[in-house]
Design a protein that fits this description.
Layout: H1 6-18, E1 27-29, E2 32-38, E3 44-48, E4 58-59, E5 65-66
Antiparallel strand pairs: 1-2, 2-3, 4-5
Length: 71
Amino acid sequence: LQVADREELERWVEHLDDCSVDHSGIIDATWGPTVVFRDPDNIQIELCVSNPSPVGSSIDERGRLQVPPEG
């Protein structure tokens, strides 16, 4: 699930802490800062701030960002 910015993500971390929910803390992933936790049914939920992708980039079959060479 996408959140607006890192500050909102930090508010979610505080909320999860207040509710005693185990979580990953903020992970600086390649696609943007992310927090991972599980709901009561053990379904993984990810909150992230999406970084804008460079022009001409794409996602490969493994979910990795592919950026064309400069020039």
